[in-house]
Specification:
3 helical TM bundles of succinate and fumarate reductases; 5 helices; SuccDH_FuR_B_TM-su; 117 residues; heme; transmembrane
């Protein structure tokens, strides 16, 4: 991927973080009392109920993907400025991609397990 396209995706994921983060914070802090949203009982916005609601679980998945891409792309940018060289940049790109995928896979696993509870 070209650097210009990656930079554009970085901006888009930043906006995505703001939107999905606002949705997440609204479900936790604004739509129900905080104590009810942190409980595990049958309250509509309790922890398990949020994971069982497909729209809220999808917003958490989107937040996970946006944060992983945005954060790991920032690390990739910092590391690419430390040293220049094709081999070094290729290793950095592969390592950061693998780490981001591992975080997304592990986070998705968590969302799926909580959804099935």
């Amino acid at each position: 991927m070209r650097e210009k396209t990656i930079h554009l995706l970085h901006y888009i994921t930043g906006i995505g973080i703001l939107v999905t983060g606002a949705i997440h914070l609204a479900t936790v802090f604004l739509l129900s009392p905080y104590e009810a949203s942190m409980s595990f009982d049958g309250h509509p916005f309790s922890v398990i109920s949020v994971y069982r609601n497909i729209l809220l679980a999808a917003s958490l998945q989107a937040l996970l993907i946006f944060v992983a891409f945005h954060g790991f792309n920032g690390v990739r940018t910092i590391l690419s400025e430390l040293y220049q060289g094709k081999t070094y940049l290729r290793i950095v790109n592969i390592a950061v991609t693998v780490a981001a995928l591992a975080v997304v896979i592990y986070g998705t696993r968590t969302i799926v397990i909580a959804h099935l509870l």
